[in-house]
Amino acid sequence: MTAARTWLRALAVTATIASNVLAQVVSGLTGNYGPRPEGLGWAIVFVAVAVVYVVCAVVAWRVVRSPVPGWLMVGAALFWSAGAWYPLARGIGWLWPVLMGVTDLWAIFVGAVVLCYPTGRFSRFDRVVLLVGTGAIAVRFISTLLFTSPAPAACGCVQNAYAVLPSDDADFWFGVAWRAVGLALMLTIAVRLAVRWFTSSLPARRVSFVMPLAIVLWCYGTVQDSLSFTLGWDGGWLQFIPPFAIALIPPAFIGGVFYARGLRSRVADLVIVARDKVDRALWETSLARTLHDSSVRVYWWDEQGRAFLTSDGERVPDGESERPGRSTLAIDSDQGPIALIEHDIALSQDDRLLDAVSSALLLSVDNDRLRGRLERTIQELRQSRLRIVEEGYLARRRLERDLHDGSQQQLVSLAISLRIATAKAETAGNAEVAGDLERASAQLADALRDLRELARGIHPTVLTDGDLTSALEELGQRSHLPVEVRVETEDRFANVIEETIYYCVSECLANAAKHAGARNCAVLVTRRDDTVSVVVKDDGKGGARFEPGGGLEGIRDRVEAVNGRAELRSVEGLGTILELTIPVPRAEAVAAEAEPV
């Protein structure tokens, strides 16, 4: 907002309030009220109406995109004071007829406020109504200047300087006609809004007819004023109803705008609802609940079928999204169409609301696309890592088999040959040669033992020749600590999973003996549905944790490589518990994997 615009609005607000307050003060001091009700109470009521309009105008300038409603409210408040200034100017012949002619001009501004609710824009019908009202008050203004010439004794007025055709009858009937036209316009506006109320859905009722009480009461006030003018009827305390109704209109306008803004803020909840996945049925019901429009329908674009589908996956019939009283909001992205949202046409009055809905859906869809892309990438990574683990397992098994069937068998044959040569040397009585051969046999036995240990480290032969239970029991027997091993399942798992369990348990027992200072260890293997659980616990000093490059970190890497997880609970002085959870299929083709490669 520019400084000039700010100063102009401040000047208009100040002048409007000053005009109303000053008019009431001067009227009270001089006693010149004219046809208006007298007294302090009425003065306060008239000033309060003007203040309400001015305050709501300031708020409207801040919350409504268009500045029109704010200026209309200021205009209504400014001309509201004309009725008080008119009696004060009765001594000025060229001024009081002008003020008298514009006394009812405030009604045009108030009607315009009602018609432009809530966007600040006018439809073609609204413009026609305003044109008719403006024409009617223009005719009334001209008739006041030309025909009004009351007797000085009756109103205390000086001669009308513009009354070229003075006529009390013409002035009277023009006044009646003006009130009849005004009442007809009021009823037209009220009927139009009432029809929209009864024929529209819930959003149209809340957004397009927030001010029903004010409209009805204003209609009553117009009827009362017409009867008072035509029949001389005194409404008594009922005369307070028209200003009260008029004062209700701008707060109702502002309240409706804030209601629409509240809908926009609630649209943000849609992103939270669809944060996990864009569930089409859930999105549609959540949007309907947020907009208070149970008739909302969302049609989703199907790229393969090149057509829009309902949330149930059915093709949208031709013309389904073009029903009377409905409007559609197209949601598109740089990758093409996403959806069509069919909603009550009343919601089209709030561009920001629809922008918020569009942004929420785009954000949810984009998040869903990114999430799906990330999940696919993670799944590919897991599969790639699992393939690497399986290839490593197969490579180690082939190497262990090659060592067993190749080098180890050759060394065993060499050991037999050495024993035979030693026996021959002893038979020939060559003790020196026999001793050399025995020493060579001992060295060969050490080398063969080392080779077997190496082969076992590459791949545990006991898993191939036996099962997981026997392999873990062998680990317990080889450990330097007492180890209780319980395997509560007879199922065989995939080779890579059994090998992972074997090496993880082996690392845990080694850590318990070397670092934890434990006295006892326990290993428990159980299976629940599609997972196998391995729990290794010791009574050592505790305080263990996953550290980069550490043994426990290696265990976690091994387990995660087969899509499992490792949980560590270790408290100082209370020992350590490591639980491994690894997914396994219900039916495993381990027999095929167990065959020699």
Layout of helices and strands:
Layout: H1 3-30, H2 40-63, H3 68-80, H4 82-88, H5 96-101, H6 105-115, H7 124-147, H8 152-155, H9 168-199, H10 202-208, H11 212-231, H12 241-273, H13 280-291, E1 297-302, E2 307-309, E3 326-333, E4 336-344, H14 351-427, H15 431-458, H16 461-465, H17 468-478, E5 483-487, H18 495-516, E6 521-528, E7 531-538, H19 551-561, E8 565-571, E9 575-583, H20 590-594
Parallel strand pairs: 5-6
Antiparallel strand pairs: 1-2, 1-4, 3-4, 6-7, 7-9, 8-9
Cα distance, first to last residue? 81 Å
Structural class: alpha+beta
Q: Radius of gyration from the CA trace?
A: 47 Å
Spans where pLDDT lies below 50 across 5 or more residues: 587-597
Q: Describe the strand arrangement of the main beta sheet, using strand numbers.
A: 5-6-7-9-8
In terms of quaternary structure, what is this? single chain
**Topology as a string of helices (H) and strands (E):** HHHHHHHHHHHHHEEEEHHHHEHEEHEEH
Q: In which range does the helix fraction lie?
A: 55-70%
Shape, principal axes of CA atoms: rod-shaped
Write a compact overview of the structure shown.
The protein is of the alpha+beta class and 597 residues long. It is built from 20 helices and nine strands.
